[in-house]
Write the structure tokens for this entry.
Amino acid sequence: MSEAVVEGQALPAPGRWVIDPAHTSAGFVARHLMVTKVRGKFTDVAGAITIAERPEDSTVELTLGAASIATGSDQRDAHLRSADFLDVENHKELAFRSTSVKLRGLEGTLEGKLTIRGVTKPVSLVFEYLGAFTDPWGNAKIGFSAKGILVREDWDLNWNVPLEGGGVLVSKTVDLDLEVQANLEQPTQS
């Protein structure tokens, strides 16, 4: 583990930290009928966080399997996988690549490029570093939370139905909520 400490938390050791899909959630919330929150997640999550000697130089890469979208409704999930939304037949994944990290103590802003349906746009995520720790089996781990808001039309996710009394069936914005745990990648033995 790193010897550097900020606000009582040990900073992660420099290196490549691989996202642990079993302990990571990539969730989202959209409004239905302008009122109800519909929550969903992607169950196929992969990627890595590369911690640099200077934390501001660190990078993040994250991919989500588009077909793994799950909202608790088979009919809605099938529609979200269709060409009206994610078009999983032609676009297998959503991908995020960071472009900069701005730190304020244990929190910060992660700027990057998000690709959905072959469209790449800038996105900003607010994150919190949750700590570095060792699990009961001696494995080094780190944790982060991140949140952001996407405007669907920025990625050509334009499908909607106008409502008779005003508004639309599906909100134009989607809230992202990421909970990430990552494992320090061990060098391969030759």
Observations:
- The first strand starts at residue 5 and ends at 6.
- The chain has one helix and 13 strands.
- The mean pLDDT is 93.
